[in-house]
Specification:
With 455 residues, the protein is mainly alpha-helical. 84% of the residues lie in helices and 0% in strands. The relative contact order is 0.14.
Amino acid sequence: MSATKDLTKGKPVSLILGFGVPLLFGFLFQQFYNVADTAIVGRFLGGDALASVGSTGSVNFLVIGFVMGICNGFSIPVAQMFGAKDYRQLRKYVMGAIWLCIIFGVIITVGTVIFCPDILRLISTPDDIFERANTYIRTIFAGIPAYFLYNMSAAVLRSLGDSKTPVTWLIIASVINIILDVVFILNFGMDVFGAALATVIAQFISGFGCLHKAMTAFPILKMSKDDRILSSKHIGMLCAMGLPMGLQYSITAIGSVMLQSAVNRLGTMYVTAVTASNKLSMFMCCPFDAMGSTMATYAGQNAGAKEWDRLNKGVGSCVLLGAAYSAAAFLILFSGSNILARIFLDDKSLYLLPLVKQFLTIQAAFYFPLALVNIVRFTIQGMGFSPIATLAGVFEMVARAVVAGLVSVYGFDAACFASPAAWILADVFLIPAYFICRARLIKKHGKRELQEADA
């Protein structure tokens, strides 16, 4: 039990920082996978190779995002049972999640590998980068089991309050990833296939590391014969939590795919600029991802413990942290985007720096709405209302789809405002939804307690 962390007691802001900072480092090192690939590909293989990797970004997010979403969703009942101190039910949920990950892993891997070329044609991937793009993303899709292994193991660890182990293994894996990038691309001449293969191998390593820790360091996860028996009740609850979260990522990504398709039609030059911009933006947005994951666990444990007042306090503390970081991130990107973009652009591509700065500056100006999206959405999910939180993804998809339609008229300028529009529209739905969900939760448990008292 010593490895677990209870988020139902203590000052919310201290708990959020203590739990979230290790998560932040985890997200940062996870981004090192992409940054290492992109930087080495862009600097040593050139702008066309960079565009080939970048042109698959939205499709990558569509599929891998679904994997991340359902794994995070599967962990919500685990966090709730940990908060309620019901460890038998906790183990039943963990066992059910393992089997569901195996089933989904096989289906998604086979489907994406087979239909990969058709997907790339659907999003108007330019002919001059098509073969490289197909090689890169098909290799990533073949490694989907590695993403399930890491994300499920890490999600369970975080549900039990351990946010440090996933970080430790991501640090190790990121170093291995960078080394393999250099060896595969520079020494073996494996081009973009080497970059993708390095990422998959590193993901497997981090996944096995987290799995080993979960199996050896947490007595409450030690399975009995009864725990290993699958329960339709637990499988149903896991699907009710996991599938909406996975669909939320995918629905959001559909808008990104439509936008990517519109940018692809502008030509390789703009694809390269957007790729470099997105890599920097994703890196800068890691704190928002950490805030979201922290609030999912925080809300899950406190909802399980029926600590209703702590939900508001936790959200308020995290929103203040999000506002402070949003301001700092804008200043960094506004003043340093030209320097940072050189990480990904070779000398022949430096003429794209004005486009990169325009894209990044506009996005960074709207980082606070993004902070709210992550904080509020994941809090709602942690409270057990995944289907409602999923609707926010629909709003994001609609906003990006509308802006994608404007790209053909207003060009690159319209593309810069796609994500800000998506974040604002999602917030319009999420903020009132949080208060409604919290009120429903309190009412639901109040009625249950009265019924138990009468009985």
